[in-house]
Specification:
By secondary structure, the chain is an alpha/beta fold. It has a single domain (4-149), classed as Tetrahydropterin Synthase, Chain A (2-Layer Sandwich). It has helices at 58-73, 86-95, 108-120, and strands at 4-16, 29-41, 76-80, 99-102, 128-135, 141-145. Strands 4-3-1-2-5-6 form a six-stranded mixed β-sheet, sandwiched between helices. The protein is elongated, with a radius of gyration of 18 Å. It catalyses: 7,8-dihydroneopterin 3'-triphosphate + H2O = 6-carboxy-5,6,7,8-tetrahydropterin + triphosphate + acetaldehyde + 2 H(+). Belongs to the PTPS family. QueD subfamily. Its cofactor is Zn(2+).
């Protein structure tokens, strides 16, 4: 059987601040994120299957990533759930509705690990998450590969 990789690109806008960081990213700032999701599998071979020839329907991949990532993080302020930031989160939550609190420092790297867990858990049988690439800026990105995390 032939293994094929499919990639779909997504984008979302989000702000974050790095709690306790010793540089300018400790301040609240935003990014235009670009997320590339690559899955792999063998195309369906059953001629009676409406998905014959597909590893997975791009629409299904789009739905999974939109539900798990884009709808949650788009136009959100992402902050680490830390004791030192509790008061800030309380004040911001009184004014703004889309604050996402995570149990990790919301770096590009940590966000990728979180996204990988969320997406992989939702993929159909026979389809595996191969890699993710998250652009934080036009020239800066992080990558996650399944082969590095087995």
């Amino acid at each position: 059987m032939t293994v094929i990789r499919l990639t779909k690109e997504f984008s979302f806008e989000a702000a974050h601040a790095l709690d306790g960081y010793d540089g300018p990213c400790r301040e609240i700032h935003g990014h235009s994120y670009r997320l590339f999701v690559t899955v792999k599998g063998c195309p369906a071979e059953d001629a009676d299957d409406p998905k014959c020839g597909m590893v997975m329907d791009f629409g299904v991949l789009k739905r999974i990533v939109n539900e798990e990532i884009v709808s949650r993080f788009d136009h959100a302020l992402v902050l680490r759930d830390s004791a030192s930031g509790a008061e800030l989160r309380r004040v911001l939550a009184a004014r703004f509705g889309n604050i996402v609190t995570v149990d990790y420092q919301p770096t590009c790297e940590n966000m990728l690990a979180d996204f990988a867990r969320r997406i992989a858990a939702r993929l159909p049988e026979g389809v595996a998450l191969h890699s993710l690439k998250l652009h934080e800026t036009a020239t800066s990105f992080a990558e996650w590969f399944a082969g590095d995390n087995e």
